[in-house]
Amino acid sequence: MDIAINLILFIISLAVLLKAADWFIDAAERIGLSFGIAPFIIGVTIVSFGTSLPELATSIAAIYADSSEIIIGNIIGSNVANIALVIGVMAVVAKNVNIDNDIMHIDMPKLLASAALLWLILHDNNVSLFEAIISLVGILIFIAYSVSADRLLTKGKRPIVVWYDYLILIVGAVLVYFGAQFTIKFATAFAVQVGMPMKSIGLTLIAFGTSLPELVVSLQAVRKGKTGIAVGNVLGSNIFNSFLVLGVPRLFGKMVIPETIHDFTLPFMMILTLLFAFMCITRKISSWEGWMLLLMYVYFIVQVFM
Fold this sequence. Notes:
Layout: H1 2-34, H2 39-64, H3 69-94, E1 96-98, H4 101-122, H5 129-147, H6 163-194, H7 198-210, H8 212-223, H9 227-252, H10 265-279, E2 284-286, H11 287-305
Antiparallel strand pairs: 1-2
Helix pairs in contact: 1-2, 1-6, 2-3, 2-6, 2-9, 3-7, 3-8, 3-9, 3-10, 3-11, 4-5, 4-9, 4-10, 5-9, 6-7, 8-9
């Protein structure tokens, strides 16, 4: 009975976390537009950060809950889920996913660089403060380059923001904080009761749950025929995961790095990232490639539990 209760409370906490992140994203997007920030910049910065907010919040909560081994599993598992699950589902539903030139020339090199830096930082099973700062500098460079790539909106195209938008932003941030705290609390309790290692919880349940915003955004983009935006969001989210979700929690305390990540999960993430880049060379991801990505995600989950 206790196992079922903890699982239900975990699902409820995760749902609150995801909904709060959705409120935060919407409010931040409107406020950003009101200041004249171009939609392209909002997409690769505010929206990508917003869809990575659950990963960041749960990782910081894991530090304070003395369950820091969840963090790396969350980063790797979320990056795998974003590519294999989110892009896979999108390709299957949309039949063909078209890739914008800007994504290939600007975002894809940054994605590969962020994955390579993550590999280098984790090779000695330790994340130092210096390496955390390097990660944060990396995300600042990414944001600065993205902002400099576009102009501000004209005043006529800027939405009017009222006090309610700022209230939603604050409420969303508060609920994200508490949602993350309780998500980690009940996930940890569930893991202990069923005998599941913490790193497996991060790689599977938490990683899948915190990747739901990317999945929802992608399916909405498919419905509107804007698959290129969804692909850019996934790339941006993975970059934020590798830089921000790794760097920020380390500022709050030391992180435990499971040595087993080098046996399968981290190499799998690197291979999947390279495969994704190779798929995008043709500027199109087909339906059968989407099915292949989904099968790779199933294989990943099975191997984690084995």
